[in-house]
Amino acid sequence: MKALRCVELGPPEKLQISEVPDPEIIPGHVLIDNKAGSVNFPDVLMIQGLYQFQPELPFTPGGESAGIISAVGDGVENLKVGDRVFAMTGIGAFAEKIVVPEAAAVKIPYSMNFETAAALPMTYGTSLYALKQRGMLKEGETLLVLGAAGGVGLATVELGKAMGANVIAAASTQEKIDLCIEHGADQGFIYPVGKLDRAQQKELSSKIKELTNGAGPNVVYDPVGGSYSEPCLRSIAWEGRYLVIGFAAGADAIPKMPLNLTLLKGCQIVGVFWGAWVGMFPDDNKKNFEELFELHSEGKINPEVSDSFCLDDGSKAIAHLKDRKAKGKVIIKI
Ligand SMILES: NC(=O)c1ccc[n+]([C@@H]2O[C@H](COP(=O)([O-])OP(=O)(O)OC[C@H]3O[C@@H](n4cnc5c(N)ncnc54)[C@H](OP(=O)(O)O)[C@@H]3O)[C@@H](O)[C@H]2O)c1
Description:
The protein is an alpha/beta fold. The chain contains 11 helices and 15 strands. The strands form 3 sheets. Strands 3, 4, 5, 6, 7, 14 and 15 form a 7-stranded mixed β-sheet that branches. The protein has a 6-stranded parallel β-sheet with strand order 10-9-8-11-12-13, with helices on both faces. A two-stranded antiparallel ribbon has the order 1-2.
């Protein structure tokens, strides 16, 4: 079969398309003929050797895909040949076929196409867990989303709206803000690109205060980090929840927050690690996926697939995300 391979660590241009042996079915697993995979920020980090979990070289990147089951191993109970599923695997998705444990594959509704299914699990899974289980977002509260037109960002805009929040989108270009408004954000504003100096940080805090009539957002969703985080925490509302999602601005600039702010604001800084939670509480995650399917069937969420690439151009798909060009999700059609 054909697969996108990482044979040496480095930028996406180093990835190669290769012929590799088909994976063999083993007990408790299913074989999926992939139809689409989707790119996430961890793919960008992993191929460069910068992710918290590093597979041995050579490996096939790709954390999630959707397709049709073509074989089932002994002991598989709830899935059968012909089922349409998405799968979360961490690696291996950017290939024509993948073998995954039964528990990693989830049947998708007939109304959902493979591109949408591949785009859904990590971004919407993370964001629903973040807003519901970690952020306790309530109807009528104000939610500020940084990097709001990115994968997890846009999912959060839609879910925030579906949960009845007043959603403020923050992103680096007007085009990205327009997309967030199309997906339900109530307001949006542009922040500067690059490391913010003190004056720019103060301006960012003031802008957030201005848009919330001085009260500040109740929940801040931050997948960006860097110099953006502290001014956002400074603007948070009394008893606000600051959700730490990721560090797209760079692992070398992980923010260190002054703890006096949590005291002065009566607020919480809340870590969100969806993958670890899924491993510990798979049944709760299953319920969240059911809720996501319901929201999709009601038209309340609709993953934005802004760019799709064929498998031969898989390296370009990853470069697109790395270069901050992605809006919503980048898909690899297989
Ligand atoms: N905690 C969890 O469980 C969990 C789960 C999934 C993902 N994540 C993390 O969430 C973050 C976002 O993931 P994603 O898949 O949504 O990525 P994405 O689609 O690339 O979105 C990230 C956004 O961050 C902004 N950004 C700011 N500085 C950037 C920079 N130097 N390079 C690239 N983007 C930059 C960009 O928006 P602007 O151009 O508008 O600033 C971009 O749209 C990553 O750090 C990822 O590891 C965490």
